[in-house]
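A.,

Following up on our hallway conversation. C-alpha coordinates first:
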Protein backbone atom coordinates (compact mmCIF):
# COMPACT_ATOMS: atom_id res chain seq x y z
CA UNK A 1 0.00 0.00 0.00
CA UNK A 2 1.32 3.43 -0.98
CA UNK A 3 2.40 5.22 2.23
CA UNK A 4 0.99 8.54 0.98
CA UNK A 5 -2.39 6.87 0.46
CA UNK A 6 -2.38 5.53 4.01
CA UNK A 7 -1.51 8.93 5.42
CA UNK A 8 -4.21 10.58 3.30
CA UNK A 9 -7.02 8.34 4.56
CA UNK A 10 -5.84 7.68 8.12
CA UNK A 11 -7.23 10.93 9.49
CA UNK A 12 -9.36 10.46 12.63
CA UNK A 13 -13.03 9.70 11.97
CA UNK A 14 -15.90 8.17 13.93
CA UNK A 15 -16.30 4.39 14.11
CA UNK A 16 -19.98 4.74 13.21
CA UNK A 17 -21.42 2.08 15.46
CA UNK A 18 -24.40 4.43 15.46
CA UNK A 19 -25.65 7.28 13.31
CA UNK A 20 -25.80 9.98 14.44
CA UNK A 21 -22.78 9.14 16.61
CA UNK A 22 -22.88 9.57 20.39
CA UNK A 23 -21.18 13.03 20.49
CA UNK A 24 -24.27 14.38 18.70
CA UNK A 25 -26.74 13.10 21.31
CA UNK A 26 -28.41 15.84 23.34
CA UNK A 27 -30.45 16.36 26.50
CA UNK A 28 -33.51 16.95 24.33
CA UNK A 29 -34.17 13.22 24.73
CA UNK A 30 -35.14 12.74 28.39
CA UNK A 31 -36.48 10.04 30.68
CA UNK A 32 -39.97 11.13 29.68
CA UNK A 33 -39.10 10.70 25.99
CA UNK A 34 -37.65 7.25 26.62
CA UNK A 35 -40.71 6.20 28.64
CA UNK A 36 -42.99 7.19 25.77
CA UNK A 37 -40.84 5.29 23.27
CA UNK A 38 -40.87 2.15 25.42
CA UNK A 39 -44.66 2.28 25.81
CA UNK A 40 -45.02 2.58 22.03
CA UNK A 41 -43.22 -0.70 21.29
CA UNK A 42 -45.66 -3.19 19.74
CA UNK A 43 -46.60 -6.30 21.67
CA UNK A 44 -44.32 -9.20 20.86
CA UNK A 45 -41.61 -6.92 19.48
CA UNK A 46 -38.25 -8.74 19.29
CA UNK A 47 -35.58 -6.99 21.34
CA UNK A 48 -31.97 -7.30 22.43
CA UNK A 49 -30.77 -6.48 25.93
CA UNK A 50 -27.36 -5.06 26.73
CA UNK A 51 -26.23 -5.10 30.38
CA UNK A 52 -23.23 -2.95 31.29
CA UNK A 53 -21.01 -3.78 34.28
CA UNK A 54 -18.73 -0.74 34.69
CA UNK A 55 -16.12 -2.31 36.98
CA UNK A 56 -12.82 -4.14 36.58
CA UNK A 57 -10.41 -5.42 39.20
CA UNK A 58 -7.55 -4.10 37.06
CA UNK A 59 -7.54 -1.23 34.59
CA UNK A 60 -6.11 -2.05 31.18
CA UNK A 61 -4.39 1.07 29.88
CA UNK A 62 -5.56 0.56 26.29
CA UNK A 63 -9.25 0.37 27.25
CA UNK A 64 -11.69 3.01 25.97
CA UNK A 65 -14.77 1.58 27.71
CA UNK A 66 -16.81 3.21 30.47
CA UNK A 67 -15.35 1.40 33.47
CA UNK A 68 -13.45 1.91 36.69
CA UNK A 69 -11.11 -0.20 38.76
CA UNK A 70 -12.18 -1.50 42.16
CA UNK A 71 -10.41 -3.77 44.62
CA UNK A 72 -13.53 -4.03 46.78
CA UNK A 73 -16.78 -5.78 45.95
CA UNK A 74 -19.06 -3.41 47.91
CA UNK A 75 -19.36 -0.87 45.04
CA UNK A 76 -20.26 -3.72 42.68
CA UNK A 77 -22.95 -4.99 45.07
CA UNK A 78 -24.46 -1.48 45.34
CA UNK A 79 -24.43 -1.15 41.58
CA UNK A 80 -26.25 -4.46 41.14
CA UNK A 81 -29.07 -3.24 43.38
CA UNK A 82 -29.48 -0.19 41.15
CA UNK A 83 -29.32 -2.38 38.05
CA UNK A 84 -32.15 -4.50 39.47
CA UNK A 85 -34.19 -1.34 39.97
CA UNK A 86 -33.63 -0.24 36.37
CA UNK A 87 -34.62 -3.68 35.09
CA UNK A 88 -37.85 -3.38 37.09
CA UNK A 89 -38.57 0.09 35.67
CA UNK A 90 -37.95 -0.94 32.07
CA UNK A 91 -40.01 -4.09 32.52
CA UNK A 92 -42.93 -2.08 33.93
CA UNK A 93 -42.93 0.10 30.82
CA UNK A 94 -42.30 -2.47 28.10
CA UNK A 95 -41.47 -5.88 29.57
CA UNK A 96 -44.69 -7.65 28.68
CA UNK A 97 -44.43 -6.41 25.09
CA UNK A 98 -40.88 -7.58 24.41
CA UNK A 99 -39.54 -10.93 23.25
CA UNK A 100 -35.83 -11.08 24.00
CA UNK A 101 -33.83 -12.70 21.22
CA UNK A 102 -30.35 -11.72 22.43
CA UNK A 103 -28.68 -10.69 25.69
CA UNK A 104 -25.17 -9.30 25.89
CA UNK A 105 -23.17 -8.71 29.08
CA UNK A 106 -20.42 -6.14 28.57
CA UNK A 107 -18.18 -3.90 30.57
CA UNK A 108 -15.89 -3.43 32.23
CA UNK A 109 -15.68 -7.03 33.27
CA UNK A 110 -19.02 -8.83 33.69
CA UNK A 111 -17.08 -11.84 34.94
CA UNK A 112 -16.00 -9.77 37.92
CA UNK A 113 -19.43 -10.61 39.37
CA UNK A 114 -19.53 -13.36 41.97
CA UNK A 115 -21.20 -16.59 40.90
CA UNK A 116 -24.29 -16.02 43.07
CA UNK A 117 -24.76 -12.55 41.57
CA UNK A 118 -24.44 -13.90 38.03
CA UNK A 119 -27.22 -16.38 38.81
CA UNK A 120 -29.38 -13.72 40.48
CA UNK A 121 -28.98 -11.24 37.61
CA UNK A 122 -29.73 -13.86 34.97
CA UNK A 123 -32.78 -14.99 36.93
CA UNK A 124 -34.11 -11.46 37.33
CA UNK A 125 -33.86 -10.76 33.62
CA UNK A 126 -35.76 -13.94 32.79
CA UNK A 127 -38.39 -13.12 35.40
CA UNK A 128 -39.01 -9.68 33.92
CA UNK A 129 -38.73 -10.40 30.19
CA UNK A 130 -39.90 -13.18 27.91
CA UNK A 131 -36.89 -14.87 26.34
CA UNK A 132 -37.08 -16.67 23.01
CA UNK A 133 -36.17 -20.33 23.33
CA UNK A 134 -33.17 -19.81 21.05
CA UNK A 135 -32.02 -16.48 22.52
CA UNK A 136 -28.30 -15.84 22.15
CA UNK A 137 -26.61 -14.96 25.44
CA UNK A 138 -23.09 -13.60 25.07
CA UNK A 139 -20.63 -12.62 27.79
CA UNK A 140 -17.39 -10.65 27.65
CA UNK A 141 -14.91 -12.56 29.80
CA UNK A 142 -11.63 -11.75 31.53
CA UNK A 143 -9.69 -15.00 32.07
CA UNK A 144 -8.12 -13.53 35.19
CA UNK A 145 -11.55 -13.39 36.84
CA UNK A 146 -12.58 -16.95 36.16
CA UNK A 147 -13.06 -19.92 38.45
CA UNK A 148 -15.17 -23.06 38.30
CA UNK A 149 -18.10 -21.45 40.16
CA UNK A 150 -18.30 -18.61 37.63
CA UNK A 151 -18.09 -21.04 34.70
CA UNK A 152 -20.98 -23.02 36.18
CA UNK A 153 -23.04 -19.90 36.88
CA UNK A 154 -22.64 -18.62 33.32
CA UNK A 155 -23.64 -22.02 31.97
CA UNK A 156 -26.68 -22.01 34.26
CA UNK A 157 -27.96 -18.68 32.90
CA UNK A 158 -27.70 -20.06 29.36
CA UNK A 159 -24.52 -18.50 27.95
CA UNK A 160 -24.21 -19.41 24.27
CA UNK A 161 -21.25 -17.21 23.25
CA UNK A 162 -18.07 -16.33 25.13
CA UNK A 163 -15.96 -13.38 24.03
CA UNK A 164 -12.38 -13.04 25.31
CA UNK A 165 -9.92 -10.23 24.84
CA UNK A 166 -6.49 -11.46 23.77
CA UNK A 167 -4.92 -8.25 22.41
CA UNK A 168 -1.39 -9.67 21.98
CA UNK A 169 0.27 -12.62 23.72
CA UNK A 170 3.70 -10.97 23.64
CA UNK A 171 4.68 -10.28 27.25
CA UNK A 172 6.44 -7.00 26.47
CA UNK A 173 3.32 -5.69 24.73
CA UNK A 174 1.12 -6.91 27.60
CA UNK A 175 3.24 -5.13 30.19
CA UNK A 176 3.07 -1.90 28.18
CA UNK A 177 -0.76 -1.97 28.26
CA UNK A 178 -1.15 -3.42 31.79
CA UNK A 179 -2.93 -6.52 30.50
CA UNK A 180 -0.99 -9.67 31.35
CA UNK A 181 -2.75 -12.82 30.23
CA UNK A 182 -1.03 -15.98 29.13
CA UNK A 183 -1.98 -18.23 26.27
CA UNK A 184 -2.46 -21.05 28.80
CA UNK A 185 -5.02 -18.98 30.74
CA UNK A 186 -6.89 -18.19 27.55
CA UNK A 187 -6.91 -21.82 26.41
CA UNK A 188 -8.16 -22.91 29.84
CA UNK A 189 -11.17 -20.58 29.52
CA UNK A 190 -11.92 -21.61 25.94
CA UNK A 191 -11.80 -25.30 26.91
CA UNK A 192 -13.93 -24.68 30.02
CA UNK A 193 -16.76 -22.87 28.22
CA UNK A 194 -16.79 -25.35 25.36
CA UNK A 195 -16.92 -28.15 27.90
CA UNK A 196 -20.09 -26.56 29.30
CA UNK A 197 -21.86 -26.48 25.95
CA UNK A 198 -21.02 -22.98 24.67
CA UNK A 199 -21.29 -23.27 20.91
CA UNK A 200 -19.48 -20.06 19.92
CA UNK A 201 -16.21 -18.51 21.06
CA UNK A 202 -14.97 -15.09 19.93
CA UNK A 203 -11.42 -13.86 20.49
CA UNK A 204 -10.48 -10.17 20.21
CA UNK A 205 -7.06 -9.10 18.96
CA UNK A 206 -5.58 -5.61 18.75
CA UNK A 207 -3.05 -4.09 16.40
CA UNK A 208 -1.32 -0.73 16.78
CA UNK A 209 -0.18 -1.36 20.38
CA UNK A 210 3.09 -0.20 21.97
CA UNK A 211 6.07 -2.46 21.21
CA UNK A 212 3.90 -4.44 18.77
CA UNK A 213 5.69 -5.70 15.67
CA UNK A 214 4.83 -7.79 12.66
CA UNK A 215 6.53 -10.72 14.36
CA UNK A 216 4.56 -10.35 17.60
CA UNK A 217 1.18 -10.01 15.92
CA UNK A 218 1.89 -12.95 13.62
CA UNK A 219 2.91 -15.08 16.62
CA UNK A 220 -0.25 -14.04 18.47
CA UNK A 221 -2.39 -14.81 15.42
CA UNK A 222 -0.90 -18.30 15.17
CA UNK A 223 -1.72 -18.96 18.83
CA UNK A 224 -5.25 -17.61 18.43
CA UNK A 225 -5.80 -19.83 15.39
CA UNK A 226 -4.60 -22.87 17.34
CA UNK A 227 -7.71 -22.47 19.55
CA UNK A 228 -9.95 -22.46 16.44
CA UNK A 229 -12.35 -19.77 17.69
CA UNK A 230 -15.61 -19.44 15.80
CA UNK A 231 -15.05 -15.70 15.41
CA UNK A 232 -12.07 -13.37 15.54
CA UNK A 233 -12.22 -9.59 15.89
CA UNK A 234 -9.11 -7.71 14.77
CA UNK A 235 -9.43 -4.16 16.10
CA UNK A 236 -7.10 -1.21 15.70
CA UNK A 237 -6.10 0.26 19.06
CA UNK A 238 -8.01 3.52 19.55
CA UNK A 239 -5.67 5.96 21.29
CA UNK A 240 -7.93 8.64 22.81
CA UNK A 241 -6.11 9.93 25.93
CA UNK A 242 -8.12 13.18 25.88
CA UNK A 243 -11.19 11.05 26.63
CA UNK A 244 -9.65 8.17 28.63
CA UNK A 245 -7.01 9.58 30.95
CA UNK A 246 -5.54 6.19 31.87
CA UNK A 247 -4.32 5.90 28.27
CA UNK A 248 -1.73 8.54 29.17
CA UNK A 249 0.08 5.64 30.85
CA UNK A 250 0.93 4.42 27.35
CA UNK A 251 4.04 6.05 25.86
CA UNK A 252 2.91 7.50 22.53
CA UNK A 253 6.48 7.26 21.21
CA UNK A 254 6.09 3.47 21.27
CA UNK A 255 2.96 3.44 19.10
CA UNK A 256 3.31 2.42 15.43
CA UNK A 257 2.39 4.95 12.77
CA UNK A 258 -0.54 4.54 10.37
CA UNK A 259 1.45 2.58 7.78
CA UNK A 260 2.82 0.17 10.38
CA UNK A 261 -0.67 -0.27 11.82
CA UNK A 262 -2.01 -1.22 8.41
CA UNK A 263 0.89 -3.64 7.83
CA UNK A 264 0.09 -5.34 11.14
CA UNK A 265 -3.60 -5.61 10.30
CA UNK A 266 -2.88 -7.04 6.86
CA UNK A 267 -0.35 -9.55 8.21
CA UNK A 268 -2.83 -10.90 10.75
CA UNK A 269 -5.63 -10.91 8.17
CA UNK A 270 -3.59 -12.98 5.73
CA UNK A 271 -2.94 -15.66 8.36
CA UNK A 272 -6.59 -15.76 9.45
CA UNK A 273 -7.91 -16.03 5.90
CA UNK A 274 -5.34 -18.72 5.07
CA UNK A 275 -6.69 -20.72 8.03
CA UNK A 276 -10.14 -20.95 6.40
CA UNK A 277 -11.93 -18.01 7.99
CA UNK A 278 -14.06 -15.58 5.99
CA UNK A 279 -13.74 -11.82 6.26
CA UNK A 280 -16.75 -10.12 7.84
CA UNK A 281 -16.94 -6.37 7.43
CA UNK A 282 -13.79 -4.36 8.05
CA UNK A 283 -12.37 -6.07 11.14
CA UNK A 284 -14.11 -9.39 11.87
CA UNK A 285 -13.58 -12.95 10.69
CA UNK A 286 -15.68 -16.07 11.14
CA UNK A 287 -15.66 -19.72 10.22
CA UNK A 288 -17.78 -20.31 7.09
CA UNK A 289 -20.56 -22.06 9.02
CA UNK A 290 -20.78 -19.36 11.69
CA UNK A 291 -23.92 -17.22 11.59
CA UNK A 292 -21.83 -14.05 11.21
CA UNK A 293 -20.20 -15.36 8.03
CA UNK A 294 -23.58 -16.54 6.74
CA UNK A 295 -25.04 -13.07 7.34
CA UNK A 296 -22.12 -11.42 5.54
CA UNK A 297 -22.62 -13.66 2.50
CA UNK A 298 -26.38 -13.09 2.43
CA UNK A 299 -26.26 -9.30 2.85
CA UNK A 300 -28.04 -9.35 6.24
CA UNK A 301 -25.06 -8.36 8.40
CA UNK A 302 -25.77 -5.54 10.87
CA UNK A 303 -23.60 -3.18 12.90
CA UNK A 304 -24.34 -1.63 16.30
CA UNK A 305 -22.61 -0.71 19.54
CA UNK A 306 -21.49 -4.32 20.03
CA UNK A 307 -19.88 -4.30 16.58
CA UNK A 308 -20.92 -6.63 13.75
CA UNK A 309 -23.95 -8.74 14.53
CA UNK A 310 -26.63 -10.94 13.03
CA UNK A 311 -29.22 -9.24 15.22
CA UNK A 312 -32.13 -7.95 13.10
CA UNK A 313 -34.18 -6.32 15.87
CA UNK A 314 -35.20 -2.65 15.93
CA UNK A 315 -35.15 -2.41 19.75
CA UNK A 316 -31.89 -2.60 21.71
CA UNK A 317 -32.45 -1.95 25.41
CA UNK A 318 -29.35 -0.70 27.23
CA UNK A 319 -29.19 -1.38 30.98
CA UNK A 320 -26.61 0.06 33.34
CA UNK A 321 -24.49 3.19 33.64
CA UNK A 322 -23.52 4.74 30.27
CA UNK A 323 -25.49 2.13 28.30
CA UNK A 324 -26.87 3.18 24.93
CA UNK A 325 -30.17 1.88 23.61
CA UNK A 326 -31.87 2.09 20.24
CA UNK A 327 -35.61 2.11 19.59
CA UNK A 328 -37.43 2.80 16.32
CA UNK A 329 -37.75 6.45 17.31
CA UNK A 330 -34.07 7.03 18.18
CA UNK A 331 -31.14 6.56 20.54
CA UNK A 332 -30.99 6.96 24.32
CA UNK A 333 -28.04 6.92 26.70
CA UNK A 334 -27.92 6.42 30.46
CA UNK A 335 -26.01 8.57 32.92
CA UNK A 336 -22.33 7.50 32.70
CA UNK A 337 -21.42 8.45 36.29
CA UNK A 338 -22.08 5.36 38.36
CA UNK A 339 -23.11 7.13 41.57
CA UNK A 340 -25.61 9.40 39.81
CA UNK A 341 -26.93 6.47 37.76
CA UNK A 342 -27.60 4.61 41.03
CA UNK A 343 -29.32 7.61 42.60
CA UNK A 344 -31.65 8.08 39.65
CA UNK A 345 -32.81 4.49 39.27
CA UNK A 346 -33.08 3.78 43.00
CA UNK A 347 -35.41 6.79 43.21
CA UNK A 348 -37.78 4.82 41.01
CA UNK A 349 -36.97 6.37 37.68
CA UNK A 350 -34.88 5.88 34.60
CA UNK A 351 -31.32 7.09 34.09
CA UNK A 352 -31.64 8.56 30.58
CA UNK A 353 -29.61 11.75 30.19
CA UNK A 354 -29.35 12.24 26.44
CA UNK A 355 -30.13 10.80 23.03
CA UNK A 356 -31.39 11.75 19.61
CA UNK A 357 -34.74 11.42 17.84
CA UNK A 358 -34.10 10.13 14.34
CA UNK A 359 -35.28 12.02 11.27
CA UNK A 360 -36.00 10.27 7.98
CA UNK A 361 -32.72 11.69 6.67
CA UNK A 362 -30.88 10.24 9.68
CA UNK A 363 -32.36 6.80 9.01
CA UNK A 364 -31.34 6.96 5.37
CA UNK A 365 -27.76 7.99 6.08
CA UNK A 366 -27.53 5.42 8.88
CA UNK A 367 -28.57 2.74 6.37
CA UNK A 368 -26.00 3.90 3.79
CA UNK A 369 -23.17 3.98 6.31
CA UNK A 370 -24.14 0.58 7.73
CA UNK A 371 -24.29 -1.04 4.27
CA UNK A 372 -20.90 0.39 3.30
CA UNK A 373 -19.34 -0.91 6.51
CA UNK A 374 -21.06 -4.30 6.27
CA UNK A 375 -21.17 -5.00 2.51
CA UNK A 376 -18.67 -2.45 1.11
CA UNK A 377 -21.37 -1.40 -1.32
CA UNK A 378 -24.77 0.24 -1.51
CA UNK A 379 -27.50 -0.19 -4.12
CA UNK A 380 -28.84 2.91 -5.88
CA UNK A 381 -32.14 1.15 -6.64
CA UNK A 382 -32.58 -0.03 -3.07
CA UNK A 383 -31.92 3.48 -1.80
CA UNK A 384 -34.71 4.82 -4.00
CA UNK A 385 -37.02 1.96 -3.05
CA UNK A 386 -36.49 2.47 0.68
CA UNK A 387 -36.31 6.24 0.91
CA UNK A 388 -37.92 7.64 -2.23
CA UNK A 389 -37.08 11.16 -3.35
CA UNK A 390 -35.11 11.73 -0.14
CA UNK A 391 -32.49 9.34 -1.50
CA UNK A 392 -31.59 11.54 -4.45
CA UNK A 393 -29.41 13.83 -2.32
CA UNK A 394 -27.25 10.99 -0.98
CA UNK A 395 -27.09 9.36 -4.44
CA UNK A 396 -25.77 12.65 -5.83
CA UNK A 397 -23.13 12.68 -3.07
CA UNK A 398 -22.10 9.13 -3.97
CA UNK A 399 -21.93 9.99 -7.67
CA UNK A 400 -19.70 12.97 -6.92
CA UNK A 401 -17.46 10.95 -4.60
CA UNK A 402 -17.00 8.23 -7.25
CA UNK A 403 -16.43 10.74 -10.05
CA UNK A 404 -13.77 12.62 -8.09
CA UNK A 405 -11.97 9.53 -6.82
CA UNK A 406 -8.40 9.46 -8.10
CA UNK A 407 -7.13 6.79 -5.72
CA UNK A 408 -9.21 3.84 -6.86
CA UNK A 409 -11.04 3.37 -3.55
CA UNK A 410 -14.70 4.14 -4.41
CA UNK A 411 -16.51 3.56 -7.70
CA UNK A 412 -19.84 3.29 -9.48
CA UNK A 413 -20.42 -0.29 -10.73
CA UNK A 414 -23.71 -0.53 -12.58
CA UNK A 415 -26.49 -0.04 -10.07
CA UNK A 416 -24.15 -0.05 -7.09
CA UNK A 417 -21.60 2.19 -5.44
CA UNK A 418 -18.72 0.04 -4.20
CA UNK A 419 -15.72 0.31 -1.95
CA UNK A 420 -12.96 -1.32 -3.97
CA UNK A 421 -10.48 -3.84 -2.59
CA UNK A 422 -7.95 -1.02 -2.51
CA UNK A 423 -10.39 1.09 -0.53
CA UNK A 424 -11.51 -1.49 2.04
CA UNK A 425 -8.85 -0.55 4.63
CA UNK A 426 -10.24 3.01 4.46
CA UNK A 427 -13.96 2.22 4.61
CA UNK A 428 -14.35 4.31 7.79
CA UNK A 429 -13.11 7.37 5.90
CA UNK A 430 -15.35 6.60 2.92
CA UNK A 431 -18.43 6.12 5.11
CA UNK A 432 -17.68 9.43 6.85
CA UNK A 433 -18.42 11.24 3.58
CA UNK A 434 -22.11 10.45 4.14
CA UNK A 435 -22.16 11.74 7.73
CA UNK A 436 -24.11 15.01 7.64
CA UNK A 437 -22.95 15.82 11.19
CA UNK A 438 -19.25 15.59 10.30
CA UNK A 439 -17.39 18.66 11.50
CA UNK A 440 -20.17 19.79 13.82
CA UNK A 441 -19.26 20.05 17.48
CA UNK A 442 -15.90 19.38 19.14
CA UNK A 443 -15.77 15.56 19.12
CA UNK A 444 -12.34 13.97 18.55
CA UNK A 445 -11.82 10.48 17.19
CA UNK A 446 -9.16 7.81 16.76
CA UNK A 447 -7.28 7.23 13.50
CA UNK A 448 -9.17 5.52 10.68
CA UNK A 449 -6.83 2.54 10.13
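Then the amino acids I'd put at each of the 449 positions:
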Amino acid sequence: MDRSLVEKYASPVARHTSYPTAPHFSADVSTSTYSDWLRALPRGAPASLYVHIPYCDRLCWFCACHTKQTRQYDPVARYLKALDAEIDSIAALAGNRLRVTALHFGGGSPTLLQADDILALGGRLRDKFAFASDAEISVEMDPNDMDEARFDALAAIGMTRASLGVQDFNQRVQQAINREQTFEQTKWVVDAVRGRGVHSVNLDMLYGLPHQTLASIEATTDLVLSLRPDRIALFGYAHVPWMKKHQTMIDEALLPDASARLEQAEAASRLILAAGYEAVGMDHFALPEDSLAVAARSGTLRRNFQGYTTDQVDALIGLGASSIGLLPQGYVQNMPATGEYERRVLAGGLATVRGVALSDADRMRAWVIERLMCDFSVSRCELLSRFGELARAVIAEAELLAANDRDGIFARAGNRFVVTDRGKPFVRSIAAHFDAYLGQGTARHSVAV
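The chain has a mean pLDDT of 94. Curious whether your intuition agrees with the design.

B.
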